[in-house]
Amino acid sequence: MAHQQWHCGPAGCPPHGKRRRGEALEQAILAAAVRELAEVGYDAMTVEGVAARAHTGKAALYRRWPAKEDLVVDALHFMLPPCGALPDTGSVRDDLVELLSAMAATIRTPAGTAMQRMLGSQRCAPEILETVHGKVIGPRREMLLEALRRGAQRGEVRPDAVTVLVAQVGSAMILQHLADDDRPVDRRVVEEIVDQVVMPLLRP
Amino acid sequence: MAHQQWHCGPAGCPPHGKRRRGEALEQAILAAAVRELAEVGYDAMTVEGVAARAHTGKAALYRRWPAKEDLVVDALHFMLPPCGALPDTGSVRDDLVELLSAMAATIRTPAGTAMQRMLGSQRCAPEILETVHGKVIGPRREMLLEALRRGAQRGEVRPDAVTVLVAQVGSAMILQHLADDDRPVDRRVVEEIVDQVVMPLLRP
Predict the structure, then answer these.
(1) Which residue among B116, B119, B169 sits closest to A197, beta carbon to beta carbon?
(2) CB neighbours of B160 closer than 8 A, spacing ≥ 6?
(3) Interior CA angle at B112 toward A75 and B10, to 5°?
(4) CB contact under 8 A, B168 and A173
(5) Residues of B with Cβ-Cβ distance to A197 under 8 angstroms
(6) C-alpha dihedral over B12, B14, B16, B19, to 10 degrees?
């Protein structure tokens, strides 16, 4: 895929206030890029929009990130929360509720929303998708699978349910729930999904 | 939510060729709107982009659809395929494979892609979401649930698995599969989802 060049958007605010340099300015731009991505999506994201949100000028962006996808990759690396440790409650049901609740909470952050919108864009550069998969989707899938493996060792999970496909059921249901009218996924919803859908599928 | 006004984009092609009027021009515009939605998404969609794809001028669009969401609602009504009849193979497994394969095929059409991107946009007007739910999501969910009900009457499905949540598992897995690298969902993938995930969940 050809690199997507920056395109013009609404005029941004001029730089104002105290002059930030180096890391502080860089982090302000990365946070602004995530907010822009979450609100308008990858395709409609503009250099003016990001500069205005970061209260800086376009030159500060172009100097650091000549192409849009470079900024997006850096912004995602900066903002996406690390995976955290796999919960170990001793019950596969409770491990899954913990894991999926943390996942649902992450999706609702600006970085999570930005990530989701990125996956829905058809113009997304491969290096962006790799960042999202490598940092977020891959590790979380591995944790879900590991929770099933532990459950199988304890005899709570039938061994042939320990598959990549089965491990994804809970997260697929959460994503579908979010896609419906953008409803919040609270703990009650996660428990309903785990108890009505995931657990009946795991039981020996 | 306030109505989103059209905003400027790249200059569109001037009208050319034979002059179309009335229904022919209208349908060309609706089809162009769906292609634009599928390719650039709702937020980045512009009146110039749609006019260029339809080989017409902006005035032809503004005259018919003063606001962006009016055009989008009409375009979705025009392009989204009707639901079709509920398959009745006599086996819940085969009914679900048929239904979910048809669903996966619909999602891959330009109208299906447009619809998905719409659901991912945070600026989507309520009347657009209502159109998508009323015409596509609602009727298909009802068919999935009806397939489970029939299966329960035949003794193939445990009665307490006939729930809205369980009925959505197959479609949630298909959507998640599509979100991953935009991989195609062929019949083999649908059968894997039904056999490894949905059927173990339904069995009495």
Answers:
(1) B169
(2) none
(3) 60
(4) yes
(5) 165-166, 169, 201
(6) 100
φ, ψ of residue A188 in degrees (nearest 5): -60, -40
As given in the structure block, the two tokens for residue B188 are: 């083999």
B44 → closest Cβ in A43, A172, A179? A43
* pTM for the structure as a whole: 0.80
> How many Å apart are CA B54 and CA B36, to the nearest integer?
10
- Give residue-wise pLDDT tens across range B136-154: 888 999 999 999 999 999 9
> A67 with A3: CB under 8 angstroms?
yes
Contact by Cβ (8 Å): A146, A88: no
Please answer whether residues A42 and A123 qualify as being in contact, where contact means their C-beta atoms are separated by less than 8 angstroms: yes
| Of B116, B122, B168, Cβ closest to residue A39 | B122
Longest pairwise C-alpha distance within chain B: 63
Contact B32, B58 (CB under 8 A): no
- What residue in B sits closest to A39 (Cα-Cα)? B122
